[in-house]
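Problem: given the chain below (373 residues), write out its structure.
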Amino acid sequence: MAGKRYAKKADKRNMYEETLRNLVTIMDKGTLPWSKGRLEGLGSPSPANFNTGKRYKGFNVINLLCISMENDFKSNFFITYNQALNVAGLNRKDKDLIEKSPLSGQKSVGHVTYWGCLTKDADGKPWFVIENGKKRTMPTPQEVKDEKLKQNWFLRDTAIFGFEQLDQEKIPQAWLEKRNMVEKTINKDMLNNQNDDVIIATAVKKMIDRLGVKVEHSPMTKTPCFKPSLDKICMPPKNMYEDNARYYHTLFHELTHATGASHRLDRESVRDYGMSDEVRAYEELVAELGGVFMAIELGTKPITIDNLQNHASYIKSWHSLLADNLNNGDCKILHKACSEAEKAVSFLLDGPELKNQKKMKVVKENDDNGLTP
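Solution.
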């Protein structure tokens, strides 16, 4: 009898290297993987799973954006092999499975990572409960506490395929309609309308109020920045930007900087921002990724290739930082930056209490300078 099959453990360094190498390759061409316009991502404005409909997060977002650009995918949907079988109404016991599979003859374009967990009870035995005839192996936080369960988390990866690799004739029409992938519904919920800006502006105002940072708009401000000593973001007026997408991306970038203040997340790269070019480049990368993730969360357009000329100096600094780490064999820096950006976005969206209740530390700085976009 064949033993149970488990997902292969991810080789962390290889996964990190795969994504970092893809990003550096794209940056070598003078562009960024998140510069593809929002409406170009058919069916979903950001990388999402076609089977579950859920959006990917953090490191996986950057990885899949790189894969999408390298393969010239028009859709942001991805799927695993087993999920493709599920969508097609197949299972591994079906005859002629290879021919029936909607991914027949296709090769994986990359991998996504996810966290697995092994839970054991107080006696060291695998924990599970049966609910509605199905086995559940993931306990709730309350069950972990009440039953004194022990959990061992580990990183895994799984092969991924792009939506365009699917044989759509083998996909039920109901699934295509469900994911807005038929002509009449493609991106119908993503098209900008006159209410979009009002909704986004209201959400951003609430977020800024919860954060407690001062945002000052002035035509005298040439370079947007966050000033830690004053806990203030300086921005040019909104009407001075090429479009709303550029304005919000810049504001989200600065808000990400602000989350790193000592009385919030107390991010090391904010504390040591002026210590070296490498620290500065890293914090700017965190803020840029935070801007991308926030744009995805709130539904604003990402900056497009036309806007990248304003990012030239920063792209150069990020490229140098990432390429140096890649050449030195330390490929975890991008994953770390994605994780810190994701924490910043969660902090902004969830409106948590200040993690450090003591008075804000005063950072010595020239008030004409700050953390910039």
